[in-house]
Design goal:
Chain A: Keywords: Periplasm, Signal, Transport. Chain A: Its main location: periplasm. The structure holds 2 protein chains of 2 kinds. Chain A has 13 helices and 12 strands. Chain A is of the alpha/beta class. Chain A folds into 2 domains: 2-95 and 216-269, Periplasmic binding protein-like II (D-Maltodextrin-Binding Protein, domain 2, 3-Layer(aba) Sandwich), CATH 3.40.190; 96-214 and 274-301, 3-Layer(aba) Sandwich (D-Maltodextrin-Binding Protein, domain 2), CATH 3.40.190.10. In chain A, strands 1, 2, 3, 4, 5, 6, 7, 8, 9, 10, 11 and 12 form a 12-stranded mixed beta sheet that branches. The longest helix of chain A is centred in the last third of the chain and has 20 residues, at 282-301. Chain B is mostly helical. In chain B, 75% of the residues lie in helices and 0% in strands. The longest helix of chain B is centred in the last third of the chain and has 39 residues, at 382-420. Chain B is globular. The chains are: A alpha/beta, B mainly alpha. Chains A and B meet through helix 1, helix 3, strand 7, helix 8 and helix 9 of A and helix 5, helix 10, helix 11, helix 16 and helix 20 of B.
Chain lengths: 302, 513
């Protein structure tokens, strides 16, 4: 029996795969994903987890330094990520990019670039997430940082009057957007896929900016203290296999990390992809994080 | 005999036990977090600003809730009309809604695209925005006005009918009657209502952020969340939560001091008839207050219901399972909370009880997790821990409701019981519990509803196979299923309200109120 700690939404989705006998393990347990790492850190080496599923790059440095995770031993050559990935501890299984989502019926001509968004009239209202309580919120701040560098605070100041509100997590923001409260919502390039596939609704689109979009990836890792190292390895290898990768796109509404575009589900093939993908290594992100969040806070507190 | 009389009035072994249990369940987790952190952390530059904002919004929110509750409760206390009982019960519903659902309901009314702005546009008036500190206060009033109204209304209903007869036969003017009967009651009840609402607003997080419009509306609870979630700085989280706890207990102490004073003495339990407020102006004013309050509280609820209806069929079997779990949790939490509250329904007990809502849910959850983890798998304990924590969190409300009446019963009938030599059991069975029936029903209803809707603490313990309904709402939202989430939220509203209604009704049998 393999114990997997996973981001909440994932667990219900791998049920079918398990029933097909793709994984010879019974996965137990979950935690709401923002608390996944704190939970492991609290448990330390006494944790019962063999595999952790659903970490984001914002915590990999802390997770790595805790010494609680072991190399995954999985061949990375099947990866189809838009960036190079050679991490031997954290294994990607799906990805997306930060993007503002809009409704074509409400906003016929969305801003064509990040600059255009900053210069847009102030009655264009957007909702974003707080970088101090949300992963997508932190990615937004790093996105602005990577596009504008030292000018990030000035960029946030220009954006401030357009920000209708800031929410604790992604769900609240997205709920406000689908209720028609705002013109655009900070979300992911993959969000329109849900509306296309589940609702046959093609009015939700991601605004693609030439300045680039920040890369967001979800990761699995093997816990060093596992008493089931072989099962854990099997499980991790399985996450990059075709059956799992074909399922994860619609399970998690993200791009599969190891599946060529031709094999993506239909709705995903329609999605607009950014030309330029921005990403900070965990060391760069750790060095920039506090200042980037502080710049955001200062600019929006005026 | 003498020792029994002391036991009746001043607290007993049961009271000590109940008080110690609260202390252990609140200070224990803080201590566990502190031990794990290896000491207190430091406050950051943003923390002082967060503290100031937290205090400011909590004071304003509690002040506005109680101030507005006075005319509304007075109007409800002296008017009789068809559907009054249902209206009073329905108006209590916002208090028991999960935060995210209530916020979306409020936004459907007051948001950019809401009913209020649609009406303003139609009239050619400038639009309003809900985002800002006024939105935070509006939302807190929406949540807490029902509680304040109910607490004050209870105070009005506890004035014996004989007193109103007396003022009427003495021919006192409405103003004189207000001074001799109503003002003293308000002075006794309002500070406690203010304190308990102030403490709830202290730990506000999602409401303050979503409606506050950005980082200007940062609260201490958000700083705690950040410390645990991002920095894993448990020392700082512990320090912030102790500051929050100290603020809450200070508020409690001040309220206790202000709210001292005795009740009205015993009456014959006649239905209170009022001879005041018969003038046209008074009737108009009362009617206006009732209509305004009902409109303010019920319109967002109606929007929640409307949004939820289409989603009821899209929820999936997981939601029904979660609903069953929630009902079980709520019933057991309610029994636990009432058993806990009865011995604590004293001045000191109420102060101790405040700790349950004053402690940051995140620190409480983390601390309990640290304590439980060495002995058991937290997943196996998810529901039992939820039950205990729900009872703990509902305790201050139960005590606020029970304490004034419990003290009055002890003062009014204690000597009689002593003279008759009633045993402890006989006292409970024949006097104490029957006389507390109305507040007991209200307290049990509130606890059941709160336990149905509460999520706060259990995230670390959350078990995929034993989700509760609020968790299910968040899950559905988190996977884009907004319509199903709205359906599940409506189900949650119906269940919470149903539980509240049944208990509250049970407490009001034979009462014309």
């Amino acid at each position: 029996m393999l114990t997997v700690y996973a981001g909440d939404y994932v667990v219900s989705e791998w049920g079918p795969a398990r029933d097909r006998g793709d994984v010879e393990a019974s996965a137990a347990a979950t935690a709401v994903s923002p608390r996944l790492l704190p939970r492991i850190l609290l448990e330390g080496e006494r944790t019962e987890a063999d595999v952790v599923f659903g970490l984001n790059t914002d915590v990999t440095k802390q997770a790595r330094e805790s010494g609680l995770f072991a190399p995954h031993n999985v061949d990375l050559s099947p990866l189809t990520l838009p960036i190079d990935w050679s991490d031997d501890v954290f294994l990607p299984y799906n990805y997306g990019h930060t993007a503002f989502i809009y409704n074509t019926e409400r906003l016929a001509e969305p801003p064509e670039s990040f600059d255009a968004l900053l210069e847009a009239p102030d009655d264009l209202k957007i909702v974003i997430q707080d970088p101090r309580s949300s992963i997508s919120g932190l990615a937004t701040v790093l996105w602005v940082q990577s596009v504008y560098g030292d000018g990030a605070e000035a960029a946030w100041e220009k954006l401030a009057p357009k920000i209708l509100t800031v929410t604790k997590g992604w769900s609240e923001s997205y709920g406000l957007f689908t209720d028609g409260e705002a013109d655009m919502v900070m979300s992911y390039t993959t969000s329109p896929a849900y509306h296309i596939i589940a609702e046959e609704d093609r009015t939700k689109k991601a605004a693609i900016f030439p300045e680039g979009h920040y890369f967001m990836v979800e990761l699995a890792a093997k816990v060093a203290s596992t008493d089931q190292p072989e099962l854990a390895d099997q499980f991790l290898a399985f996450t990059l296999s075709e059956p799992f990768q074909e399922m994860i796109a619609t399970g998690n509404w993200s791009f599969p990390a190891a599946l060529p575009r031709e094999q993506w589900p239909e709705g995903f093939k329609e999605l607009a992809l950014p030309e330029e993908v921005l990403f900070y290594s965990e060391d760069e992100a750790a060095a920039l994080r506090d200042e980037a969040v502080e710049a955001w806070r200062r600019a929006l507190s005026r | 005999m003498a020792s029994r009389a002391v036991a009746l009035s001043r607290g007993s072994a049961a009271a000590w036990l109940a008080g110690l249990a609260v202390a252990a369940l609140t200070l224990g987790p803080v201590a566990a977090v502190l031990v794990r952190a290896g000491g207190w952390g430091d406050l950051g530059p943003g923390d002082w600003q967060a503290l100031r904002f937290t205090l400011l919004q909590a004071l304003a929110s509690a002040g506005a809730s109680v101030a507005l509750a006075v005319p509304v409760a007075r109007a409800l206390a002296r008017r009789r009309f068809r559907g009054r009982g249902a209206l009073v019960a329905l108006m209590g519903a916002p208090f028991i809604l999960p935060v995210i659902v209530a916020v979306l309901g409020l936004i459907a009314v007051f948001g950019q695209n809401g009913l209020a702005n649609a009406a303003l546009r139609a009239l050619g008036l400038p639009e309003m925005t809900i985002y800002g500190i006024h939105g935070v206060i509006l939302a807190h009033v929406f949540f807490n006005l029902p509680l304040a109204v109910r607490l004050l209304l209870q105070g009005w209903l506890a004035i014996p009918a004989e007193r109103f007869r007396l003022t009427a036969s003495l021919g006192l003017s409405p103003w004189a009657m207000f001074r001799v009967l109503e003002a003293p009651m308000l002075l006794r009840i309002a500070p406690g209502a203010f304190a308990v609402i102030f403490v709830i607003c202290l730990s506000s997080f999602a409401v303050a952020l979503t409606l506050g419009g950005g980082p200007r509306a940062t609260t201490v609870e958000l700083a705690i969340y950040q410390a645990v979630r991002f920095d894993f700085d448990l020392g700082r989280a512990a320090l912030l939560s102790v500051i929050q706890l100290a603020l809450a207990l200070t508020a409690g102490l001040v309220a206790l001091r202000l709210g001292a004073g005795s009740g009205f003495g015993a009456g014959l339990d006649r239905v209170a008839r009022r001879w005041d407020g018969r003038g046209r102006l008074a009737r108009l004013a009362d009617g206006l207050w009732i209509v305004l309050a009902a409109g303010f509280l019920l319109t967002p609820l109606a929007m929640v219901a409307l949004r939820g209806l289409p989603g009821l069929t899209a929820m999936g079997p997981g939601t029904w399972e979660a609903a069953l779990n929630s009902v079980t949790v709520a019933l057991i939490s309610t029994a636990l909370c009432i058993a806990w509250a009865l011995p604590l329904a004293t001045r000191g007990g109420e102060l101790v009880g405040l700790a349950g809502i004053a402690l940051s849910p995140l620190v409480l959850g983390t601390g309990l997790f640290l304590i439980v983890r060495p002995y058991a798998n937290p997943f196996a304990l998810a529901l039992p821990v939820t039950m205990v924590v729900n009872a703990l969190v509902a305790l201050p409300f139960a005590l606020r409701i029970l304490r004034p009446e419990a003290e009055a019963v002890r003062a009014d009938y204690g000597r009689l019981a002593l003279a008759l030599g009633l045993t402890r059991m006989a006292w409970l069975r024949l006097v104490f519990l029957p006389r507390l029936r109305r507040p007991l029903g209200f307290a049990a209803g509130l606890t059941a509803a709160l336990s149905m809707g509460d999520l706060g603490v259990i995230a670390l313990f959350a078990d995929p196979d034993r989700a509760t309904l609020p968790l299910q709402v968040y899950r559905l939202m988190g996977s884009y299923q907004m319509q199903a989430a709205a359906g599940a939220a409506l189900l949650l509203l119906l269940l919470s309200f149903g539980a509240f209604w049944i208990f509250d009704r049970g407490g009001r049998v034979n009462a014309d109120a």
